[in-house]
């Protein structure tokens, strides 16, 4: 898909990311990443074993996040590493692909976590943060252009996976498994052009701000009817009466 090629800047490498953050300060407490190599069709041909780290935050985690992720202060005290070290670990994990990759998340909250974490850790490698921010794709925003639920709203990651028949791994809110499942969703999307087309036809028909004459034509076409230029003109004429 040309639109997707443009969105990933025609990069051969994608790094699927998921960050877990504190409840209030939105600092990173865990990172999961998977490096994928694409073939000429944009499909994933190879995925590297993932990278995961727990990250020490300067502020409290929050009860809601603890219950959601299973990550608490005791775990961070035992296994957590500084934010700067986690970012350097991500850079080392990606190797030479780091400078030639697009970084893919599901939703924009991950970038908020990245920015907030850097603001609390100004001694961290700025060039690593900047590279991620400069070459970043919110796949949730991209896929929701074509596929939405019955109320014309974006799906969650798990529901998109179900829609595209992705066999999810692990549990939700484990950053490594969320990154893996995002990679699998991306690949299923690329390999399902017919599903994307049918979804997009439905989504176009539900768009709320399409002028009525065009919406009526789209509805007819979606229902398998042919519409001539003269019919389109008459539909518009009737609308303007």
Tell me about this structure.
The protein is an alpha/beta fold and 241 residues long. It is 49% helix and 15% strand. Strands 1, 2, 3, 4, 5 and 6 form a six-stranded mixed sheet that branches. A hairpin with a 5-residue loop joins strand 2 (28-38) and strand 3 (44-47). Helix 10 (193-206) runs antiparallel to helix 11 and helix 11 (212-222) packs across helix 12.
Summed up, the helix count is: 12
- What is the overall pLDDT average? 93
- Rg is 21 Å
Helix content: 40-55%
Oligomeric composition of the shown chains: single chain
> Tally of extended strands?
6
N→C terminal distance:
41 Å
Characterize the largest beta sheet: strand count, sense, and whether it forms a barrel: 6 strands, mixed
The low-confidence parts are none
Structural class: alpha/beta
Q: What characteristic shape results from the CA principal axes?
A: elongated
H/E element sequence: HEEEEHHHEHHEHHHHHH
* Range of strand content: 5-15%
What keywords describe this structure?
six-stranded mixed beta sheet, 12 helices, about 50% helix, about 240 residues, alpha/beta, elongated
In short:
The protein has 241 residues and is α/β, with parallel strands linked by helices. The protein is built from 12 helices and 6 strands.
Any chance you could write out the topology, listing elements then pairs?
Layout: H1 2-7, E1 13-21, E2 28-38, E3 44-47, E4 51-54, H2 63-69, H3 73-79, H4 83-94, E5 101-105, H5 109-120, H6 126-134, E6 136-138, H7 139-143, H8 157-163, H9 175-190, H10 193-206, H11 212-222, H12 229-239
Parallel strand pairs: 1-5, 5-6
Antiparallel strand pairs: 1-2, 2-3, 2-4
Helix pairs in contact: 8-9, 10-11, 11-12
């Amino acid at each position: 898909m040309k639109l997707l090629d443009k969105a990933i800047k025609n990069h051969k490498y994608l790094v699927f990311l998921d960050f877990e953050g504190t409840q209030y300060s939105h600092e990173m407490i865990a990172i999961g990443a998977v490096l994928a190599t694409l073939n000429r069709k944009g499909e994933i041909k190879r995925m590297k074993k993932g990278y995961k780290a727990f990250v020490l935050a300067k502020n409290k985690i929050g009860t809601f996040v603890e219950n959601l992720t299973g990550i608490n202060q005791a775990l961070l005290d035992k296994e957590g590493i500084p934010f700067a070290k986690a970012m350097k670990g991500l850079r080392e994990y990606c190797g030479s692909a780091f400078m030639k990759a697009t970084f893919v998340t599901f939703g924009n909250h991950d970038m908020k976590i990245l920015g907030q974490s850097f603001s609390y850790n100004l001694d961290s490698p700025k060039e690593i943060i900047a590279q991620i921010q400069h070459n970043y794709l919110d796949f949730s925003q991209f896929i929701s252009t074509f596929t939405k639920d019955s109320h014309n709203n974006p799906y969650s990651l798990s529901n998109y996976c179900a829609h595209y028949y992705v066999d999810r791994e692990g549990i939700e809110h484990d950053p490594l498994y969320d990154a893996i499942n995002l990679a699998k969703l991306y690949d299923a999307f690329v390999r399902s052009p017919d599903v994307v087309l049918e979804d997009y036809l439905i989504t176009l028909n539900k768009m709320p701000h399409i002028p009525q004459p065009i919406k009526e034509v789209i509805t007819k076409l979606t229902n398998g009817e042919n519409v001539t230029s003269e019919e389109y003109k008459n539909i518009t004429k009737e609308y303007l009466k």
